[in-house]
Amino acid sequence: MGLDLKPLVSSSPIMISELSGKVIAVDAYNTIYQFLATIRGATGELLTNNSGEVTSHLSGLFYRNVNLLAENIKLIYIFDGKPSPLKSKELDRRRQVKDDAFKKYQEAITAGRFKDARKYGQATSVLTDKMVEESKMILSLLGIPYIQAPSEGEAAAAQLTQSNIAFACASQDYDSLLFGAKRLIRNLTISRKRKIPNKNVYVDIEPEIILQQQLLNEISLNLEQLVDVGILIGTDFNPGGIPRIGPKTALKLVQEYNKLEKIEKIEDSVANIPYEEIREIFLKQEPSKVDSIKFSEISYDALINFLCIEKNFSATRVNTSLDKVKKSITNRNQSLEKWFD
């Protein structure tokens, strides 16, 4: 669902070049689901190899990451662990949405309404265990470390910024801010294009950065109060929030009453929400056992074998992308050598 903080958040544009040399913690599931939704054929079908195995996730992970690696951005991917029981309602909702979309997709295909089929197809994305393992494999071959979080991936990513292992989190959702991320980067892509959901339309985008402390200062709240705003709006742990309360109203209420349980006009609704448990999910997550992160070199031959031979990617396109990274690394090394001459 994603937390709707957009009306309250002010962001600043950031150039990809400004992130050179910095470590960015990426919400893996958020990113891979984007690829599964958008990297599809004309009638909404996922990309596959000659054996019918889905490759949309691999295509997105490979081409986006080689471009970011060429810009000397150091990436860490964070995978979700076991979800909180409070998330079950939201997960059930998502499954139902996908089931409904799949039925509409099949009907559109049968009727020859291929434009509609692509729209519905994008809403049917399912991330399988095999896709997760393949995603981890391609990241390893790219020399990109990944972490298996004990629970919420965004919480583990936020912790990396708190411990200064990572400069920022990268996600399209705002949840990282409630988990305590110092910085959140949205639109982390070189292409500067994003497809509008359910439409065959692309819009220009720019990477943007949100500073948590700046946000809290601007709205005159602390982190726990920001979590309360999220609970009023609706999080993955209480979908829908309080009826008829949007982001701006939620902010005004928390600013006025300090805590959501003190808001008398909605006390009956609040009583039905396990808000203390939700606060703990955001503010007291189990820490990930990460002391240091090891970045590895790219395994060029293994990547070509995996992508081009096993997954039937274009050898020309893959090699062109890898050559771009090789050239970037060579240029950086030469610059360092000149510095120390």
Question: Tags for this entry?
Answer:
single chain, 341 residues, alpha/beta, 7-stranded mixed β-sheet, 14 helices, 49% helix
Give structural notes.
The protein has 341 residues and is an alpha/beta fold. It is built from 14 helices and 9 strands. A 7-stranded mixed beta sheet has the order 1-9-6-5-2-3-4, with helices on both faces. A two-stranded antiparallel ribbon has the order 7-8. Helix 7 (175-178) links the parallel strand 5 (168-170) and strand 6 (183-186). Helix 1 packs across helix 2 (56-70). The radius of gyration is 21 Å and the shape is globular. It starts with 11 loop residues before the first strand and ends with a helix.
Mean pLDDT: 91
Strand order of the largest sheet: 1-9-6-5-2-3-4
H-E order: EEHHEHHHEHEHEEEEHHHHHHH
Largest sheet: 7 strands, mixed
Low-confidence stretches: none
Inertia-based shape: globular
Helix content: 40-55%
Structural class designation = alpha/beta
Query: Into which percentage range does the β-strand content fall?
Result: 5-15%
Helix count equals 14
Please compute the radius of gyration using only Cα atoms.
21 Å
Terminal residue distance: 54 Å
List how many beta strands DSSP finds.
9
Tell me briefly what this model is.
The protein is α/β, with parallel strands linked by helices. Helix content is 49%, strand content 10%.
What is the topological layout?
Blueprint: E1 12-13, E2 23-27, H1 28-38, H2 56-70, E3 74-79, H3 88-111, H4 114-121, H5 129-141, E4 146-148, H6 153-162, E5 168-170, H7 175-178, E6 183-186, E7 193-195, E8 202-204, E9 208-211, H8 212-219, H9 223-233, H10 247-257, H11 267-271, H12 275-283, H13 300-310, H14 315-340
Parallel strand pairs: 2-3, 2-5, 3-4, 5-6
Antiparallel strand pairs: 1-9, 6-9, 7-8
